[in-house]
């Protein structure tokens, strides 16, 4: 079980997702506001905003909240000015970590992130220190019980997907970020039900963790994702299934 999209599977098993809905809404509102500010308030002509709005709807955010966030981004309503930045870090056992951040106070955020890392066996790295480990990709996840590999290959590869990877319980479809909307449209048209669809920083290699480091790593991922200014966290850890089973008992 490896980092990036598999982290969502771990969170579902831990039952942590619903408990943090308020924080999810806060992050989605930031994403919508920044997307509207950078590319305009019309989702049909702003792919980034369209994705942010889709994510908000998937999380059952009320339409009024979405509309207000868009208007704050376009300047129709007064709002906070967020800056986008990326932090690079190391976790337990040298795991590479990247964080997408939206903040209205960089000094405060970097101080808090440094504290979280230090408390959980990690440390902040210099710009470029781990970025080379990751490659930006469009990522779609499918449960094996809901789709066949043959059908996925027929639709996804024809639409421009680059690769289909098979996990124990799921398939992962990868594509170039520029092809994300086109591949998504083809999957939707074919009514293939993905469990998640996002652009992600996919690790090119992984670090396999023993139980002690795995426990530290999951605590660190939880703490980082719990921070209001951190939109997404990517990491190149791999936790063998037998260790995950031990940790869940």
Q: On the 0-100 scale, what is the average pLDDT? A: 89
Physical arrangement of strands within the biggest beta sheet: 3-1-2-9
Supply the CATH superfamily name of the largest domain: YebC, transcriptional regulation domain
Biggest sheet statistics: 4 strands, antiparallel
What structural category characterises the helix and strand content?
Answer: alpha+beta
In short:
This protein has about 250 residues and is an alpha+beta fold.
Could you walk me through the main structural features you see in this protein, from its secondary elements to its overall organization?
There is one protein chain. The chain has nine helices and ten strands. By secondary structure, the protein is of the alpha+beta class. It folds into three domains: 6-74, Arc Repressor Mutant, subunit A; 83-132 and 205-248, 2-Layer Sandwich (Alpha-Beta Plaits); 134-202, YebC, transcriptional regulation domain (Alpha-Beta Plaits). A four-stranded antiparallel beta sheet has the order 3-1-2-9. The mean pLDDT is 89.
